[in-house]
Amino acid sequence: MNVMDFNVKRFAADAGTFLSRAVQFTEEKLGQAEKTELDANLENLLTKAENTKIWTEKIMKQTEVLLQPNPNVRIEEFLYEKLEKKAPTRMNNHELLGQYMIDSATDFGPGTAYGNALAKCGETQKQIGSGEREFIQSTAINFLTPFRNFLEGDFKTISKERKLLQNKRLDLDAAKTRLKKARVAEAKAAMWAEEVTKAEQELRITQSEFDRQAEITRLLLEGISGTHAHHLRCLNDFVEAQATYYAQCYQYLLDLQKQLGSFPSTFSSNNNQTSTSSLPSISVPSIPISTSLPTQANSVVTSGFSELRASSGSRKARVLYDYDAADSSELSLLADEVITVYSVPGMDSDWLMGQRGNQKGRVPITYLELLN
């Protein structure tokens, strides 16, 4: 057999398989053929995976809008990313406003009250802009990138295996239909016995392939719970970066308000005309905020788990959220219950062993709060 003959036969076989699947799918939609239903657990895992994909996309896209409200700039950054080129560095809105204020202060004269105030406001705006840039960079690395990696990596693999499972299911049901028809024909004529045997063999093969693909798909889908735990940790990083950024902005503006309060209520403009208008008083609540608080709080929590992993002892922990175990090696959790946790050698840093009575299993640390 030459290469051309082989390719022709392979094409014919593929075309036959495609036609068989298309006929089976059409007859199912018309209610003319039976359909093998997936077990309830696998259906629930498929629904959970699809919902995770939908909400991950929505949260990621809206976060990108939050970080860069200008759609034209987002499109430009997307094009640079696809071309694998670095986008040009540009000032953000706060930095641009700050630069305008500093430039105007130079024009009006830094020795005047207004010019001096503009210069101080400009420096503060640039500080806020710098903080915004750090917040955006931190969010892109620690929050958006893991979400994008899930959509472009894990979920694409799940979608591929899910499509294969659908094809194997169509092949299985097509084989069942052919066997059913062969048996009906066998009852009418003994000569169809060979066709029945062939159909039975085909059914056994397609059933085996379907069961194997179902197991592969199930194993991939069970990893979605781990994805949720990872995304929860990313969400904590995002909130910490956001809290740090807003705390910095508040502190910068509080310091600026104190500096502006030291200026006289009247001042001379650069054309020597006197203005009797006074600077508005900005009322800011005196809430003690330190830009280091989120990092300190996070470091205390992290160090607590680090100490537990380093020791051979155990601690009590309160469960923050419900958690469904992905497999028999994990322990399902209920919010607000108290369990015992400890570490074992070689365990991933994001997990601990949890124990409730005689029940034991791995639990994600992002769902726990250590108790004293």
> Tell me, what's the shape?
elongated
Into which percentage range does the β-strand content fall? Answer: 5-15%
Query: Which structural class should the secondary elements be placed in?
Result: alpha+beta
Q: Please tell me how large the radius of gyration is.
A: 32 Å
Task: Report the biggest beta sheet as strand number plus sense, adding barrel if it closes.
Answer: 5 strands, antiparallel
* Number of helices in the DSSP assignment: 8
Average residue-wise pLDDT: 80
Q: Trace the largest sheet across and list its strands.
A: 6-5-4-3-7
Low-confidence stretches: 266-301
Please give the number of β-strands: 7
Helix percent reads 55-70%
- What string gives the helices and strands in order? HHHHHHHEEHEEEEE
How far the N terminus sits from the C terminus, by CA atoms, comes to: 77 Å
Overall description:
With 372 residues, this protein is α+β, with helices and mostly antiparallel strands. 65% of the residues lie in helices and 8% in strands. It contains 8 helices and 7 strands, in the order αααααααββαβββββ. It has a 5-stranded antiparallel sheet with strand order 6-5-4-3-7, with helices on one face. Strand 4 and strand 5 form a beta hairpin. The protein is elongated, with a radius of gyration of 32 Å. About 10% of the residues have low confidence.
